């Protein structure tokens, strides 16, 4: 009966034009040797009304702790598993039977992501096959969870102005196949979008206030559309690229975005707090982006904790919380 309920909820979401794709979540990473136990993490999430998380790989202790919590979970497939999953349908079935089936009655899986930021790259050609085999395995197991992949802005050859958004020649064949799969299934594409890196990569042409949602008096005009923050411009450039390969009906989930609190000149606690709280206000407003107005964009903040096994500098300092679960800065999560 519980599997039937999951199936009916999934179908209802997509029949209502993906109306279930909304809200704020957080990325929960594991690259630290001093992180709290999964049970304590779940308690923290519930205390802050964080009801959506993304994890990058299946971990039995984490999935067990999430059981019965009501927290929705995007579950990642490790990049190194993609080749096997793409080439062997039985491997995909084993993956599902090991990492999904034992938890399906108690964990609210909302998406399975076949890899993270492997396009462009040497294993990019395995993504679609892995997605297809995982989708078939999930359906065979009566667990029709959406399957997608997470991409970065590196898939684009052009992103400015947003209407010129276009996939690079290298990734276009891969993205055409993935886009066709997502459009046919009515599954979203997952996008990792960081105005922080755009700002630090070109500080002369990317004003800090434009990157922080902090108000920009001039903004950017793109035909009849007007952009007052970089986040919307980045998202719409990917929407434009999708449209150019037949993906006008494909929605997106922002699977990662955030701002570090230390590590370089722009990475301060004040800027991180400004970005994240302005982001939450923006994406939960229901205003959407100029290219897709009126669509609340499900968005996952990177990341829950500062993780000390990441490279030194900004990479260590994206956390909303320290490993002892004290706040790096306060975030106004929706009630």
From TrEMBL:
Q: Does the keyword Coiled coil apply?
A: no
The record's section on Gene3D superfamilies has: Glycosidases
* Listed SUPFAM superfamilies: (Trans)glycosidases (SSF51445)
Q: Does the keyword Signal apply?
A: yes
Key words of the record: Glycosidase, Hydrolase, Signal
Among the GO biological process terms of this entry, one is: carbohydrate metabolic process
- A GO term for molecular function: hydrolase activity, hydrolyzing O-glycosyl compounds
Q: Name the Pfam families on file.
A: Glyco_hydro_17
Signal peptide stretch: 1-23
**Matching InterPro entries, A to Z?**
GH, Glyco_hydro_17, Glyco_hydro_17_plant
Which family, according to the similarity comment? Belongs to the glycosyl hydrolase 17 family.
What's the protein name? Glucan endo-1,3-beta-glucosidase GVI
The top of its lineage is: Eukaryota, Viridiplantae, Streptophyta, Embryophyta, Tracheophyta
């Amino acid at each position: 009966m519980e599997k039937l309920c999951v199936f009916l909820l999934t179908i209802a979401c997509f029949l209502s034009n993906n109306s279930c794709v909304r809200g704020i979540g957080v990325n929960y990473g594991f690259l630290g040797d001093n992180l709290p136990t999964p049970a304590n993490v779940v308690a923290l999430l519930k205390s802050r009304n964080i009801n959506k998380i993304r994890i990058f790989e299946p971990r039995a202790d984490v999935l067990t702790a999430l059981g019965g919590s009501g927290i929705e979970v995007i579950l990642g497939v490790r990049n190194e598993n993609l080749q096997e999953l793409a080439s062997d349908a039985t491997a995909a079935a084993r993956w599902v039977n090991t990492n999904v089936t034992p938890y399906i009655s108690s964990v609210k899986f909302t998406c399975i992501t076949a890899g993270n930021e492997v396009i462009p790259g040497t294993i990019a050609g395995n993504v679609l096959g892995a997605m297809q085999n995982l989708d078939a395995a999930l359906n065979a197991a009566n667990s029709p969870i959406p399957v997608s992949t997470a991409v970065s802005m590196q898939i684009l050859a052009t992103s400015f102005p947003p209407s010129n958004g276009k996939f690079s020649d290298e990734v276009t064949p891969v993205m055409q196949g993935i886009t066709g799969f997502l459009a046919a299934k009515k599954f979203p594409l997952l996008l990792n979008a960081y105005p922080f890196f755009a700002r630090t990569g070109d500080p002369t042409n990317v004003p800090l206030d434009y990157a922080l949602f902090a108000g920009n008096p001039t903004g950017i005009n793109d035909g009849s559309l007007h952009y007052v923050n970089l986040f919307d411009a980045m998202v719409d450039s990917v929407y434009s690229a999708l449209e150019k390969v037949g993906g006008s009906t494909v929605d997106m989930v922002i699977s990662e975005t955030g701002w570090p609190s230390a590590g370089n000149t722009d990475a301060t606690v004040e800027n991180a707090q400004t970005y994240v709280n302005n982001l939450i206000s923006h994406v939960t407003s229901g205003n959407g982006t100029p290219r897709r107005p009126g669509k609340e964009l499900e968005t996952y903040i990177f990341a829950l904790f500062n993780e000390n096994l990441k490279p030194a500098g900004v990479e260590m300092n994206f956390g909303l919380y320290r490993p002892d679960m004290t706040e790096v800065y306060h975030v106004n999560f929706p009630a």
